[in-house]
Amino acid sequence: MHTKLFIPGPVDVRKDVLNKMANPQIGHRGKEASELQERIEEKLKVVFKTKNHVLISTSSGSGLMEGAIRSFTKKRAAVFSCGAFGDKFYKICTANGVPADVCKIEMGKGFSPQEVIDFLNKGDYDLLTLQHNETSTGVTNPIGEIIASVKEWHPEIIIVVDAVSSLGGMDIPADDWGIDVLITSSQKCIGLPAGISFASISERAIEKARGIENRGLYFDYVTLYDFNLEKHQYPSTPTLPHMFALDYQLDRILEEGLENRYARHRALADMVREFAEKYFKLFVEDEKLRSDTVTCIANTRNIDIGELNKKLTERGYIISNGYKALKDITFRISHMADYTEEDVRGLLDAMIEVLGLEVDD
Ligand SMILES: Cc1ncc(COP(=O)(O)O)c(C=O)c1O
Questions:
Q1: Is the CB of 48 under 6 A from ligand 1?
Q2: Is residue 59 in contact with ligand 1, taking CB distance under 6 Å?
Q3: Is any atom of ligand 1 closer than 6 Å to the C-beta of 185?
Q4: Does the CB atom of residue 62 touch ligand 1 within 6 A?
């Protein structure tokens, strides 16, 4: 039996999308490959709401996160962390010998513009990183407001936003908000298997990168950018199966319409939040910060999440335990990509049944 993945990535991929991966291979230096990549780039620009170039990387999003740290930090990075993926950016900095400081807040909370500015005021930073959607806690940071403040007080800082678990499911207008580098992966709201990721990049960021040494090679944004500009090609051999599927899936996404897609994600999130509030408690207290793509639920009934998942799997579903320190005290349900209300209803009904929860008439 197929198990529907309600873990926060990878998510289920539609059969018609998967089938596109089986297209016959093409040469990666030919006209057909350039045309494929150019089509993908143009559609990604619409999804990213940007006029800037959108690069692809034949890696999951972590590769582009690492590339961004190396390509754009000349002085020191300010890393804002409200959970596991913020911490990851800091680990990337230390692993690459890039000078950085981390500003950490309690899990379940999000950053305010003032907190960000206060931290930036204390150092000499030329890059900042922040999660739009922190998957470990289900927090969506108010990125638009934060960036507006950064632009006012520290306009020279390059802004790198990790939207791995939200782009395509929530509205993140890269240009309107002034994001320099906006990164996402394929296996979440875009609805493809993992293995390809994307980043939009501003001109001022790329010009700055040209003056930075030791940017690495494989994830060097300048190399990716220049190859892209010259021929709409990829510096090494790209993952063509992902590109075939992406070309098709982006058509589907644009056919659905971005605003409709966001509304569907919000409606699914509302269903899960209603369930959580009725039977448990939402981990994120501030409702303005609750993610529309992944819900983190406080395990107030102290259920055995492993046992729950065993029984759910027998019914064709799987959810996720909490992340690391939150492993047993929370659990997470994702509502990303192509799920319908019927899919989510099916999962929630299965949970009600397995946990023996009371249903109102
Ligand atoms: C918010 C966030 N950032 C970064 C990553 C890492 O992305 P990837 O697994 O595509 O390398 C993830 C993965 O779950 C994530 O949720």
A1: no
A2: no
A3: yes
A4: yes
What is residue 3's DSSP assignment?
P
Would you say the CB of residue 58 lies under 6 angstroms from ligand 1?
no
Instruction: Parse the chain into domains and list their residue ranges.
Output: 4-10+257-355, 15-254
- Token readout for 101 is 């400081």
CA distance linking residue 44 with residue 276, whole number of Å? 34
CATH no. of 15-254: 3.40.640.10
From ligand 1's centre to the CA of 180, what distance in Å? 19
Query: Is 165 touching ligand 1 by the criterion CB < 6 Å?
Result: yes
Token pair of 253, please? 């996404």
pLDDT of residue 358: 87
129 lines ligand 1 (CB under 6 A): no
Q: How far apart are CA 336 and CA 266, in angstroms?
A: 10
Q: Is 131 in the pocket of ligand 1 (CB under 6 A)?
A: yes
Q: Which alpha helices (H) appear in 257-340, and where do they start and end?
A: 258-279, 305-314
157 Cα to the center of ligand 1, angstroms: 23
- CATH number among 3.40.50.920, 3.10.450.50, 3.90.1150.10, 3.30.780.10, domain 4-10+257-355: 3.90.1150.10
Residue range 324-359, pLDDT digits in tens = 889 999 999 999 999 999 999 999 999 999 999 988
61 Cα–ligand 1 center, Å = 6
pLDDT in tens, 192-233: 999 999 999 999 999 999 999 999 999 999 999 999 989 999
Distance (Å) from CA 57 to ligand 1 centroid: 14
How confident is the model over 39-77, as pLDDT tens digits? 999 999 999 999 999 999 999 999 999 999 999 999 999
Task: Please tell me the distance between residue 255's alpha carbon and the centre of ligand 1 in angstroms.
Answer: 26
* Residue 26: CB atoms within 10 Å: 15
pLDDT at 158 over 70: yes
Ranges assigned E (strand) in 76-228: 77-81, 100-104, 127-131, 133-134, 139-140, 158-162, 181-185, 197-201
Q: What is the pLDDT of residues 83-99, one digit of tens each?
A: 999 999 999 999 999 99
